[in-house]
Amino acid sequence: MESVRKKDVPVVTVLDPKFKYEVAREPGGENIKYCFQCGTCTSGCKVAELDSKYNPRKIIKMVILGMRERVLSGDFIWLCATCYTCHERCPQDVRIPEVMNALKNIAVREGYIHPAFRAQAELIAGHGRLYEIDELANEKRTDWGLTEIPQGCPEVAEIYGITGLFDLLSREVGGKT
Amino acid sequence: MPGMLQDAGREPRIGVYICHCGLNIAGVVDVEAVRESARFLQGVAVVRDNRYTCSEVGQKGIADDIKEFKLNRVVIASCSPRLHEKTFRTLMEKSGLNPHLLEMANIREHCSWVHYDDPVAATQKAKDLVRSSVARARLLQPLLRTKGQVLPEVMVIGGGVAGISAALYLGGMGIKTYLVEKEPSIGGHMAMLDKTFPTLDCSLCILSPKMVEVAECENIKILSYSQVEKVEGQVGNFRVQVRRKPRYVNEDKCVGCGDCVAKCPVKVNDEFNRNMGTRKAIYIPFPQAIPPAYVIDDENCRYLTQGKCKICQAVCQRGAIEFDQTDQTETIEVGAIIVATGFEPYDPRGLPEYGYGRFPNVITSLDFERLICADGPTYGKLKRPGDSTVPKRVAFIQCVGSRDQATGCAGYRLDGGTGSRGESTDPKPYCSRVCCMVTAKQAFMVKEKHPDAEVYVYYIDMRTAGKGFEEFYQRGRHEGIVFLRGRPGEVEEKEDGCLRIISEDLDSGCILDLTFDMVVLAQGLIPPGGLGELAQKMNLSRSEDGFLMEGHPKLRPAETAIDGIYLAGCVQFPKDIPDSVAQAGAAAAAAAVTCSKESIEIDPLGPVIDEALCIGCRLCEVLCPYGAIKVEFTDKGPKAKSIEVACKGCGVCGASCSTKAITMKHYTDSQLAAQVKAILEVV
Amino acid sequence: MKMAVFLGCTVPVRNLSYELSAKRVAGELGLELVDIPEFSCCGYPIKSVHHETAYLLAARNLALAEERGLDICTLCSACTSVLTEVSYELATNEALLDATSETLGMLGKKYSGKVRVKHFVRVLYEDVGLKSIERAIKRPLDMFRIASHYGCHYLKPSKIYDRFDHPEAPESLDRLVSATGAFAVDYRTKKDCCGGAILGVDEETALSMARAKLDDISDRGADAINLICPFCSVMYGANQRKIAANHNVKYDLPILYYPQILGLAMGISHEELGLMQNPIRPRALLAKIS
Fold first, then answer.
1. Pair (A102, A128) in one structural domain
2. How far is CA B351 from CA B400, B413, B497, B574, in A?
3. In terms of residue numbers, what domain contains A25?
4. Shared domain check, A71 and A22
5. N or C: which end of chain B has fewer CB within 10 A?
6. Mean pLDDT lowest for which of B505-514, B578-587, C46-55?
7. CATH number of the domain within which B659 lies
8. In angstroms, what is the C-alpha Rg of chain B?
9. Which range marks the domain in which residue B382 is found?
């Protein structure tokens, strides 16, 4: 799809014109094609201020152009802090954090899940929560006069099973099943 | 008011008024110093400065001074006479002075505005200008203005949407209007468009009812296939010579049955379809043409070029074919003229790097209109010209011939130096205003016909200022059209006729190396060929961009510097259809105001010829650009005579006269010499 | 007023003092908070990975509240965000509600779209009201300068929060702080994000984001940061020493949860509000009060 020239200037010869439609079909990705590259999102982005890898305007342009693999395999899509500052300000109602979620969802389906998010998803499947409530935790709660909380929540794993998330989590990185 | 002429004999008593124009002048020029410098000039009776001389207060002050100081000349140092000469002349008339005893010194446009960075020098220049104006004012002579009759008729030159609209407004007001069109049919470029932005109305569906209305309006006379040869006279009374080319078909007899076309043996390229299809030598440009009559192309007709054929005449049952028609010249007298000769599309062969004319699948926006039009060469099927396949990947390149100051290839001639196409291939520095929306529309139409097609637009800036324009552009993006910020440098042709474009995508920072089936160049709008000659015939100025200059860029956009001549549509500057129609309305209103007057006062400019000094050398006759001076034989020998109605007062005759027999009224040699002498004085 | 309290994952394990003080203050103000033991993770961390799963987790939690006829009161802003979003979407998108109900049916649950979700602080601001709060103040905290951190998901996306406070010029927290008698400190980076959401992806960037705000608030001479979210607490509280060490700076900036500030002003003892169990012990602050 692309070769890399000297000095890291990407030269793109093949684009996937369907990618923008694919993203637009994801929940939250609907308005991506309205983007007119004004840069309001990047101008107010605290992550972009600290890390040039993350530039929401550029990511959206890459999607519109159809640089599918480059976007989905990039770790930059996982850098959105979902602060919604751009979401509030975007003059075209692109809803950038939701677009990033849409991209991350597609990336997961392609086997590109970020390890931190995989770990979170697995913890939640196991305990129903990000943090395990063990006996020690409940003892402490009782000491403080707070109610006990049941350990685990099997229905969460059931939901994973229904939606197929377990299958997705078992995919190899960057590959198919 | 002949009594005013008596002022001439008295000693000059001049009132001098220096205007601050708020801070426009006073912010740079030391107005008090200028005032004091004029106080003791010869003939000056009173000097004052005003914050705004043109204000009610400023004007009243002058009127009072005229009475109190018995002034007989007035010098006003302020803005350009283009703005307020009329104001102050009226004031003088009201105060009982001849209006030609006013002299204005332009210390704003010619001084404070241009020398804003050097107040000392600007003040000195203002003093010099005032001194020279006073010197001229001393020698000013009262002049009698003549009254001219006003013919309540208007000529509209150009039958595009602007001309059509202007003619309809005028005709609707009951004003007799001549609509002159050089092509066989009215309609102009709008007739060639498939759809119009941003509503996607079919262009001819909205234009042809107006064309029919023109044909049916009893106050409008269409002069098709006709061109203006000569314009004489002035506001209220222009005499326009129109050359009517022979159609070889009697407009009144032809019913447009088409029998002649079927039998005509000559096939040639169809210019209405941008040479992408063919027509016969006898043809009608498009089905909705007005007048709805056929025309014979005398450059290609077998009979007219080779002397035998006449098949059309044989098959025409109405006897409408008239091979004996010849050029006719008609002289039409009108009170006002509206120029609406439109534009010409930029010819991208002037930018050979884009390959137009070399690569069959590189086309222009106007070509695209014909390609996608149901009446076009492909009957509305989008096919690329190279091999008639349906393009799946289409690129549009914006600003082709616009926003381009490159001089590397300027003047490049495509035809080996004969120069016939030179001007149309030079890129222009201005923005042509409509191309962004034209491209947005055309890209949308590709998507509409072929939703799976990939459509890319290379642009520098998207300019979508207009009602509904931004929304339309947004709709295009939502349909999946990809807008790429970045102007490609070159289009390369591949073996299969596809086109490769390498560009920088400024948004993502990537170099894009993409291949397309077809490339559409968004050609700019440039002044129409022959506009220079027409402007000269009418003494109209052109702006730096080559279009006709309006009376005032803000306040008189539909007028010109010449009273009685108005502008409508793209001949003034590129604009879209609604703006052209709006300007046509403004021009029609202005022309109607002129026609509503019973008589018009004419500035008494022009030559006075001293027969005793004239030796009949004919130099003035040869040099006069308007044919307004002729040498006649009298009993005293050959003598030059001025033809007042044709004279525009340019002064060429006066300047060239070797025996000083010609004096220009209001610009006499002595007045100008005094002015020059005063400005060169060392004070 | 009775609501189901949604604790989420972090609060009941790591921010007990937040839960404790919220429940304590709520009781005083006549807001009854009911625990629902079957609540799970809200779904927020899954939204990036699998949208449908996240929505179902949220809908399941909403269904549990609906079974009991209760609206939801949240303590964590991230939980607020996803629960509000899903409640909003299911209330306005019938097709989505039908599809969701069908899947919930497989778990023996049903949801009809009735539950509304509000952050605890928004309940104080809108439902309890500033007047009632002012009336409950017994010990005005006029010796405190407090800088409020609004965080992101408490206010945004503003559309799903009925725009109750303007995300570009928020004032609800400052007014709630002022109601306790404390001085609400204004500061330049007030609206900025804590960075918590990317802590696991790029720790350096996340901690730098948090640092910018700690610097700003310290410069303004605040006694404490007012927080309303356990995620933000991780960044400004639990990670404060790490940031200081990494960037070679020093902070003495205790974090307080709003119900703790309010509780103190209502005359409740700091032990009952768990102040000394906060990630940064507010010793200097408590010294000011006694």
1. no
2. 8, 11, 19, 20
3. 2-109
4. yes
5. C
6. B505-514
7. 3.30.70.20
8. 30
9. 344-526
**Do B360 and B391 touch, CB atoms closer than 8 A?**
no
Q: Is B482 on the interface with A (CB under 8 A)?
A: yes
Residue B667 is predicted with a pLDDT of 93
Q: What is the reported pLDDT for B430?
A: 95
Residue A176 lies in a domain: no
Q: What DSSP designation does B186 have?
A: S
Asked if the structure places residue B628 within a domain, the reply is yes
| Chains contacting B (3 or more CB pairs within 8 Å) | A
pLDDT of B379 above 80: yes
Q: Report the percent of chain B where pLDDT is more than 70.
A: 96
Q: How many domains are contained in chain A?
A: 2
B275/A contact by beta carbon, under 8 A = no
Residue A75 falls within a domain, yes or no?
A: yes
Number of residues that make up chain C? 290
Q: How far apart are alpha carbons C260 and C247 in whole angstroms?
A: 30
Tell me the backbone φ, ψ of residue B343, rounded to 5 degrees.
-135, 180
pLDDT confidence of residue B1: 42
Q: How confident is the model at residue B649 (pLDDT cuts 50, 70, 90)?
A: confident
A81, A137, A163 member nearest C50 (Cβ): A163
On whether the CB atoms of residues B599 and B146 are closer than 8 A, the answer is: no
A102 and A123 in one domain?
Answer: no
Q: What was the pLDDT predicted at B10?
A: 75
Same domain, B463 and B349: yes
List the beta bridge partners of residue A94.
none
Interface subset of A 53-112, CB within 8 angstroms of B:
57-58, 61-62, 64-67, 92
> What residues of chain A lie within 8 A of the CB of B478, using their CB?
33-34
* Residue range A116-172, pLDDT digits in tens: 999 999 999 999 999 999 999 999 999 999 999 999 999 999 999 999 999 999 876
Q: What is the pLDDT of residue A174?
A: 56
Are the beta carbons of C40 and A128 separated by less than 8 Å?
Answer: yes
B440 vs A contacts (CB less than 8 Å): none
Chain B residue closest in CA terms to A60: B508
**Is A1 in CB contact (< 8 Å) with chain C?**
no
State chain A's maximal CA–CA distance in angstroms.
Answer: 65
For residue B421, pLDDT over 70 is answered with no
Best mutation target among A15, A35, A36 (most B Cβ atoms within 10 Å) is: A36
B331: domain CATH number is 3.50.50.60
Mutate to test the interface with B, among A3, A4, A13 (most CBs of B within 10 A): A13
Q: What distance in Å separates the CA atoms of residue C127 and residue B100, rounded to the nearest whole number?
A: 82
A128 plus A56 within the same structural domain? no
Q: Which helix (H) or strand (E) holds C149?
A: none
* Neighboring chains of C (3 or more beta-carbon pairs < 8 A): A
Quote the pLDDT of residue A6: 53
Backbone angles phi, psi at B78, to 5 degrees: -155, -125
